[in-house]
From TrEMBL:
It comes from Microlunatus phosphovorus (strain ATCC 700054 / DSM 10555 / JCM 9379 / NBRC 101784 / NCIMB 13414 / VKM Ac-1990 / NM-1). This is Plasmid replication, integration and excision activator. The lineage of its organism: Bacteria, Bacillati, Actinomycetota, Actinomycetes, Propionibacteriales. It comes from the Bacteria.
C-alpha cells in the first residue's frame, strides 16, 4: 500500500495543548516567478488560490520543535484572531488543516560521509480562527 499525503487532521488532535500565532500573515512569494523588482504571490497548485504564510508556536511544553510556518490557501488575507491581554501570542485554531510528510536533508555525517535525513512535516490550512471558549457545561461533562 502506498501511503501519500496530505493527510487531513483536526488542529485539536495535532496540537492538544493549543497553538499560537506569532508575527504577521504574509504573502508567500513565488520564487520562480518573482524578480527583484516584481514580487509574485505563490498560488496553491490544486486550488489556484493565493498562498499566505504565518509563523505559529506549539504550546506543548515537551514539543521538540516549537515554532514553524503554516501555509494558508485563501482568496483573501487570513484575519488573525484577537489579541489576548498580557500575551505576546494569539491563540489560534487552524481550519482545514493538512499534514504532508517529507524527507529533509540535514547535511552530511562527518564520520560516515553519508547524507543525514529526517522526516519533516509541511502544514497547510484553509483558514484560521480564535479557539472556541469551553463552556462550564462542557467541562462538567468531561
Amino acid at each position: 500500500m502506498a501511503v501519500q499525503g496530505p493527510f487531513k487532521v483536526a488542529c485539536e488532535e495535532l496540537f492538544p495543548h493549543g497553538l499560537g500565532v506569532v508575527g504577521i500573515v504574509a504573502e508567500l512569494s513565488d520564487f520562480d516567478a518573482s524578480t527583484r523588482e516584481n514580487k509574485v504571490q505563490s498560488r496553491d497548485k490544486d486550488t489556484g488560490l493565493p498562498v499566505w504564510v504565518v509563523d505559529v508556536i506549539d504550546f506543548d511544553p515537551e514539543a521538540r520543535e516549537r515554532s514553524f510556518k503554516v501555509k494558508i490557501s485563501a482568496d483573501t488575507e487570513p484575519v488573525m484572531p484577537p489579541v489576548v491581554a498580557g500575551s505576546p501570542v494569539r491563540p489560534v485554531v487552524l481550519e482545514g488543516l493538512t499534514v504532508t510528510p517529507y524527507l529533509k536533508e540535514m547535511g552530511t555525517d562527518r564520520r560516515t560521509q553519508q547524507q543525514r535525513v529526517k522526516i519533516a512535516y509541511s502544514l497547510r490550512a484553509s483558514g484560521m480562527a480564535a479557539p472556541r471558549q469551553q463552556r462550564a457545561t462542557d467541562s462538567k461533562a468531561a
